[in-house]
Every structure is written in C-alpha cells, then in structure tokens.
C-alpha cells in the first residue's frame, strides 16, 4: 500500500529510495514490486546510463486505485491524529493530509 501511495504522491517511485524510506529489504521490496507489476497495477521503467535508474509508475488500471488509496489514507490520517501518532519526516510523503 505504501508503494502505491508513493506513486500517487510523486508520480513514480524509485527502488533505492523506497527501500530506504520503508526500511525494507531489497528482496522483499522487489517481490512486492513484481507482484504489483504482475497484477498490472504498476509498470517498471528502466533508464540507460550510470548510475542505473529504475522508476515504477501506475498503469492505466493502477490509476483507477487512486480514489480508493486516498480514502484509506484519509481514514489513516484521522486515526493517527486521534491516537496522537507522530508523522516523521521520512514517512511524511506517505502520510500527508489529503484535501
């Protein structure tokens, strides 16, 4: 879900940045990305050159999830505020208020 939220917020996610922000192992993150790609929700874009860069973006089908993702995150923000759970700088992209 956080991967999809990152794509919704930025338009794309990058492997290493997502790995760092989520504190996920590369193997687990790669598994999740492949599953989302296999489900037709995201597309992998490889760029030539050094350093190697790979972006993940929504497919047209994946874009249909945006209203659902936003509804879940509105609920999540409300719950975090009610429970006084702080939003950290590193995870703020995933937990911004949605208007």
Topology of helices and strands:
Elements: H1 2-10, E1 13-14, H2 15-22, H3 26-38, E2 42-47, E3 53-58, H4 60-63, H5 66-82
Antiparallel strand pairs: 1-3, 2-3
InterPro entries: HTH_HxlR (IPR002577), WH-like_DNA-bd_sf (IPR036388), WH_DNA-bd_sf (IPR036390)
GO molecular function: DNA binding
Organism: Pectinatus cerevisiiphilus
Determine and state the CATH class. Mainly Alpha
β content, as a range? 5-15%
- The strand order across the widest sheet is 1-3-2
**What's the helical proportion of residues?**
40-55%
CATH topology: Arc Repressor Mutant, subunit A
**Radius of gyration in whole Å, from Cα?**
14 Å
Average pLDDT taken over every residue:
85
* Count of the separate structural domains: 1
Can you tell me the residue ranges where pLDDT is under 50 for at least 5 consecutive residues?
none
Estimate the global geometry from the Cα principal axes. globular
Structural class: alpha+beta
Relevant CATH superfamily: Winged helix-like DNA-binding domain superfamily/Winged helix DNA-binding domain
Main β sheet profile: 3 strands, antiparallel
Distance between the termini: 19 Å
The beta-strand count equals: 3
Please work out how many helical segments DSSP would assign: 5
Keywords: DNA-binding, Transcription, Transcription regulation
GO molecular function: DNA binding
Protein name: HxlR family transcriptional regulator
């Amino acid at each position: 879900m956080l991967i999809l939220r990152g794509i919704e917020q930025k338009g794309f996610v990058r492997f290493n940045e997502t790995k760092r922000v989520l504190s996920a192992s590369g193997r687990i993150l790669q598994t999740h990305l492949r599953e989302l790609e296999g489900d037709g929700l995201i597309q992998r874009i490889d760029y030539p050159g050094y350093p190697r860069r790979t972006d993940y973006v929504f497919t047209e089908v994946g874009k249909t999830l945006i209203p659902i993702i936003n509804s879940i995150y509105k609920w999540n923000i409300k719950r975090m505020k009610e429970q006084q759970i702080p939003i950290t700088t590193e995870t703020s992209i995933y937990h911004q208020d949605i208007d």
